[in-house]
């Protein structure tokens, strides 16, 4: 039985409207590029598409999701074709988002971190398949019986196959005492996360681990004999032109003034404006979509052997091709070094998504043809990100990238809709409540936001903001006794109705 993924039920309804303004340099672009910008702004689309519906506008979707600020950069033919900001970096200060506004990149930091590790490989400072304790000097990893006698290697740290604990980190409030990297690794105060330890033997399988990334942060610093943020600035960010980016806490006033403020899904400003992430390799990058796009382009060119500002062609292919260990079918075919691989209609893209409190982002880069996009927002309402990517993919003819699930609306009479209203057992201590609203239904699971479902047939309904389906079940007397809930095409088990004679 597949465990219900309740986090995917969350849909954030529009409560208040935000006034979205557009800031960019579109006037400096050619008429052809300006036309494509306008098309991108008017062609947003989700994974579910209802026949007859028109595409959404970027401004409308920002208002729908209560996203205060959004920034985008588009790569075409191995160049950044355009970059533009929308809305506000800070609503109180009335400070607009521009192409130079910096956002927290969250786990996109891991892509740049992998570049840093591979830079050390290129410089023959480390071997990817050697015990990390050979390179760690200020701290050593304490192997135990869980490791089963096997050693963790650098390539396992950046491919999420190290077997180490901790998915991600919460960050720290400004004004908090910030722990050292060793305090974080050992889970000692003032660290707010548990210690990093083995949960299965190295190389056994894939499990996403911000803990592993954090170990690699210390490894890089120890090998380079300098602070991690300085190494990354001098050896990764500057060489590929990411001049607006940095790891760690901003100190220069011009950088501080360029930072976006974080907002909650309801539009409330985060106290202190943003969190601090000393776990820099895992989540500590501040950057812009334009700078991420420079990483995309450099990776594409290096992959083809047309640039070697950081990596050789061999190293770039190691980073961007699927990381496969011989005779280990437990490893996913879409994982690599600091990136994930997505295949669409026979064409491959490298990508990563990131999220800290009040920030989410995503980037895609094609393996051939020099196409890509990076989108960043100062909100955690992340569904808009893929909608923007889908728009770019259509306008720029990413063949076969956008393949939505097509649905047809079929009206259902009110008496039938009313018969479905009620409570259903969804999971332990979780009730799914169905209510009738107008000509459709709404669903709400205990502790989660309400979402709309629309009729495809008299008994089958679907959500629009994510791929979920509900099928109502009737007995021989035409009474509703339960429902089936399906996610991403998986039609799950029956959820029984509670206390109803309808």
Automatic annotation (TrEMBL):
<dbReference type="InterPro" id="IPR021860">
    <property type="entry name" value="Peptidase_S12_Pab87-rel_C"/>
</dbReference>
<dbReference type="Pfam" id="PF11954">
    <property type="entry name" value="DUF3471"/>
</dbReference>
<dbReference type="InterPro" id="IPR012338">
    <property type="entry name" value="Beta-lactam/transpept-like"/>
</dbReference>
<protein>
    <submittedName>
        <fullName>CubicO group peptidase, beta-lactamase class C family</fullName>
    </submittedName>
</protein>
<feature type="domain" description="Peptidase S12 Pab87-related C-terminal">
    <location>
        <begin position="416"/>
        <end position="485"/>
    </location>
</feature>
<feature type="domain" description="Beta-lactamase-related">
    <location>
        <begin position="61"/>
        <end position="381"/>
    </location>
</feature>
<dbReference type="Pfam" id="PF00144">
    <property type="entry name" value="Beta-lactamase"/>
</dbReference>
<dbReference type="InterPro" id="IPR001466">
    <property type="entry name" value="Beta-lactam-related"/>
</dbReference>
<dbReference type="InterPro" id="IPR050491">
    <property type="entry name" value="AmpC-like"/>
</dbReference>
């Amino acid at each position: 039985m597949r465990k219900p993924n309740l986090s995917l039920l969350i849909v954030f309804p529009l409560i208040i409207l935000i006034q979205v303004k557009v800031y960019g340099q579109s006037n400096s672009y050619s008429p052809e590029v300006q036309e494509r910008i306008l098309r991108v702004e008017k062609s947003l689309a989700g994974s579910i598409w209802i026949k007859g519906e028109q595409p959404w506008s970027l401004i409308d979707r920002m208002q729908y999701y209560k996203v205060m600020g959004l920034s985008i950069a588009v790569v075409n033919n191995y160049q950044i074709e355009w970059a533009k900001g929308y809305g506000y970096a800070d609503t109180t200060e009335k400070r607009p988002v521009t192409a130079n506004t910096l956002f927290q990149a969250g786990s996109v930091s891991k892509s740049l971190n992998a570049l840093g590790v591979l830079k050390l490989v290129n410089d023959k400072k480390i071997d990817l398949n050697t015990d990390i304790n050979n390179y760690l000097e200020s701290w050593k990893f304490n192997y135990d019986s869980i490791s089963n006698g096997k050693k963790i290697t650098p390539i396992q740290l950046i491919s999420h196959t190290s077997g180490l604990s901790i998915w991600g980190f919460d960050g720290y409030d400004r004004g908090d005492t910030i722990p050292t990297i060793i305090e974080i690794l050992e889970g000692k105060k003032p660290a707010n996360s548990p210690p990093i330890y083995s949960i299965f033997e190295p190389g056994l399988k894939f499990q996403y681990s911000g803990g592993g990334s954090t170990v690699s942060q210390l490894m890089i610093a120890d090998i380079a004999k300098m602070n991690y943020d300085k190494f990354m600035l001098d050896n990764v960010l500057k060489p590929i032109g990411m001049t607006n980016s940095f790891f760690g806490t901003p100190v220069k006033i011009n950088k501080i003034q360029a930072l976006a403020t974080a907002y909650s899904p309801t539009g409330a400003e985060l106290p202190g404006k943003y969190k601090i992430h000393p776990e820099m390799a895992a989540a500590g990058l501040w950057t812009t979509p334009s700078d991420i796009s420079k990483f995309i382009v450099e990776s594409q060119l290096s992959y083809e052997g047309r640039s070697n500002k950081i990596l050789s062609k061999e190293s770039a292919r190691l980073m961007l091709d699927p990381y496969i260990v011989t005779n280990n079918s437990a490893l996913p075919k879409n994982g690599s070094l600091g990136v994930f691989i997505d295949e669409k209609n026979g064409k491959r893209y490298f990508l990563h998504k990131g999220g800290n409190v009040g920030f989410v982002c995503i980037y895609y880069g094609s393996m051939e043809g020099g196409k890509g996009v990076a989108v960043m927002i100062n909100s955690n309402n992340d569904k808009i990100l893929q909608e923007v990517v889908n728009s770019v993919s259509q306008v720029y003819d990413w063949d076969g990238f956008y393949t939505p699930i097509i649905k047809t609306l079929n009206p259902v009479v009110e008496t039938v809709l009313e018969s479905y209203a009620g409570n259903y057992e969804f999971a332990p201590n979780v009730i799914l409540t169905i209510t009738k609203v107008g000509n459709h239904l709404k669903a709400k699971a205990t502790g989660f936001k309400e979402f709309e479902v629309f009729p495809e047939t008299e008994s089958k309904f679907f959500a629009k903001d994510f791929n979920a389906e509900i099928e109502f079940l009737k007995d021989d007397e035409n009474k509703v006794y339960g429902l089936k809930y399906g996610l991403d095409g998986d039609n799950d088990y029956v959820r029984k109705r509670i206390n109803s004679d309808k």
